[in-house]
Amino acid sequence: MKATMHSFPYFRTQPSRLTAYSSGLKTPLHIRNFSIIAHIDHGKSTLADRLLQMTEAVSERDAKEQLLDSMDLERERGITIKASAVTVTHEYKGETYQLNFIDTPGHVDFTYEVSRALTACEGALLVVDATQGVEAQTVANAYLAINNDLELIPVINKIDLPTARPEDVAMEIEQVLGLSTDDCIYCSAKTGEGIMEMLDCICEKLPPPRKSEVKETRALIFDSHYDDYRGVVVYIRIFDGSLTVGDKVRMMGTGRTFTITELGRYTPTQTKSKTLGHAEVGYMVAAIKSLEDVRVGDTITLDTNPANEALPGYEEPMQVVFCEFYPATQTEDSGKKGDYETLRDAINKLHLNDASFTYEPIHSEALGFGFRCGFLGLLHMEIVQERLEREGGVEIVQTAPTVSYQIELRDGTLVEIHNPADLPDLSNVVSIREPIVKLEIICPTENIGDLMKLCDGRRGTYKSQQFISQTRQILDYELPLAEIIYDFYDKLKSITRGYGTMDYEITGYRADRLVKVNILVNNQPVEALSIICHRDIAEKRSRLILQKLRKQIARHQFEIPLQAAIGGKIIARETIKGVRKNVTAKCYGGDISRKRKLLEKQKRGKKRMKTVGSVNIPQEAFLAVLEQE
User: Fold this and answer.
1) What's residue 69's pLDDT?
2) End residue of a domain, out of 398, 419, 435
3) How many C-beta atoms surround the C-beta of residue 239 within 10 A?
4) 422 and 383 part of one domain
5) For 180-215, what is each residue's pLDDT tens digit?
6) Which candidate among 81, 87, 166, 409 keeps its CA 20 to 30 Å from the CA of 383?
7) Given this model, what pLDDT does residue 65 score?
8) 208, 122 in Cβ contact below 8 A?
């Protein structure tokens, strides 16, 4: 069932319904709260733009692509990093509906943003690309919505493309997710085809908000960000009661109290309101100075008449990838902030707007002062690093990413470490446990064999295989997280020529034959280069690291040995030859003993220099170790 094409332009001559609503002239009779979820690059942001235009929430002059993506990084990469909540209105069967929708990210690293958004909704639009079909994150987000008891409306987007196959994709949705093909909405966010039918379907099929369960006010915090002038801006969904400007509210999780100075909605510009009523979504400003005072998932209630029980929240995001950030230079200019202070200020400021990564100060013999940070995934790590360099104006050296490990000690205690340097004395260690992930790959049938070989080579355990259609399959594996955080995704895309997608979730920790490999430069261990890996691949991986270091470290006046060691045993070695001056060039004759005397003198000097000299390791050496062959 295909939707019909609507006439354009989108904007008619009558006054905007949103303007009338925001000024209080017209009160909506019905509310629908929903999220837009999909795999990355399936058209969520474009669909959100078209919803804003069709509901006349933005003027034709203000309309632009990726309107809700406010960061330059989001526009450049064409991805959504931060979820955005917007309120619009729509007329259906002569009645006004208030639609509160949240545009969510699609990458696996930002699943926590999706889970937070779904908590504040009763329904979701599951967007699927008509040319790509069901992808890994499509399945993951759909199950996330189902687990939250949300009503799903499948939307097949990009039907205007020549390669679109909407009927086949509808069959995939029914086979994989169990959603009927009759419920699918066919549309094109680019041309506007089917958008009005989708808006009508939202009003008709999505359930209304539940009634208040308690008399007291309860609002759920599902997001927040820091504003330099107003403090923390809190995004809330009111489940019971209402909030008014001037109310004194209490955070039930932290016990802190604040007075509301501003309430409003994003329409998509900030529209102030004196009151937010039952089931509405909006923002709150209450002179909150620190994000530490706000817990996402916490419940807001009135301090004068508090609720007895908080709303059910959700789990905090768990950091799975860790690496270290150091300033490229450790200079201290008189009268100016040093590079370390600049990096520290940049991290503090970014953490106010993205509380999902952790950081702690550390010191390295080779790199000086820096920070060890935890991230939700490799893309999250890359985004944070780029934002630090752009917004903080500091050049960063990044060490190789690692994962967290659980160490079982002989006294029965379990210790969690995020850095190989923190590994306790091996004489006290019973076992090292690494995180295991459930990996789901959706790929063309012709690439199944190569992908199985890739997973088996990464210590994977085959679980199951499922057919989506004649040309695509789902492959389930269990792999150590450490085996997929480096280059697994790149190899997956290369094998499948870009058509393969993956999704993973941590299922637990498992002990294995893991060892710590120390990298020694001129007989001195460099902790920033040390790694924890499986015993069977330790020698091969160590040789690759040493070969890259040999190319990156410049030759010195003395010979530099590069070694990899497990405990006291050297398992690999490379040597950087020293720069040698021809001291016998001035000898044009005479006895050979004269030349030997000069050479022996040079040899003693080289030996003494090797003992007291230091090796300068450039930042390119640490970056080169990131790449696996």
Assistant:
1) 45
2) 398
3) 21
4) no
5) 888 888 888 888 888 888 888 888 888 888 887 888
6) 87
7) 52
8) yes
Q: 177: which 2 tokens? A: 């997710």
Exposure string over 206-220, b if 16+ CB within 10 A, otherwise e: beebeebeeeebbbb
User: Does 1 reside within a domain?
Assistant: no
- Do the Cβ atoms of 243 and 217 come closer than 8 Å? yes
Whether 530 and 342 have beta carbons less than 8 Å apart is answered as no
Same-domain status, 543 and 564:
yes
- Within a domain: 314: no
| Residue 345 lies inside a defined structural domain of this protein | yes
Per-residue HEC secondary structure of 288-313 comes to CCCHHHCCCCCEEEECCCCCCCCCCC
- Encode 158-189: b = buried (16+ Cβ within 10 Å), e = exposed: bbbeeebbbeebbbbbbebbebebebbbbbbb
Q: Are 429 and 408 in contact (CB under 8 A)?
A: yes
pLDDT digits (tens, 9 = 90+) for 378-416: 778 888 888 888 877 788 877 777 788 888 888 888 888
61 and 186 assigned to the same domain: yes
* pLDDT, tens digit, 9 for 90 and up, residues 12-39: 333 334 433 343 333 345 888 888 888 7
> Which tops the pLDDT comparison, 364 or 178?
178
Do 494 and 576 lie in one domain? The reply is no
DSSP string, 142-190: HHHHHHTT-EEEEEEE-TTSTT--HHHHHHHHHHHH---GGG-EE--TT
The structural domain count of the chain equals 5
Is residue 534 included in any domain, yes or no? yes
Six token digits for residue 442: 């959706």
Q: Give the residue from 295, 298, 279, 294 showing the smallest Cα distance to 238.
A: 279
Q: What would the two tokens of residue 133 be?
A: 């079909």
Residue 6: pLDDT above 70? no
Q: Are residues 86 and 197 in the same domain?
A: yes
Residues 51 and 145 both lie in one domain: yes
468 and 558, same domain (yes or no): no
Question: Which pairs count as long-range contacts for 330-334, CB under 8 Å and 24+ apart, including other chains?
Answer: 330/368, 330/369
Let me know whether 583 and 616 are in one domain: yes
* CA distance linking residue 397 with residue 384, whole number of Å: 13
**CATH code where residue 380 lies:** 3.30.70.870
Domain containing 244 equals: 218-302
Asked which of 174, 205, 236 is the last residue of a domain, the reply is 205
283-303 average pLDDT score: 82
Q: Using only the alpha carbons of the chain, give its radius of gyration.
A: 29
Residue 312: φ, ψ to 5° = -65, 125
- State how far the Cα of 368 lies from the Cα of 324, in Å rounded to an integer: 11
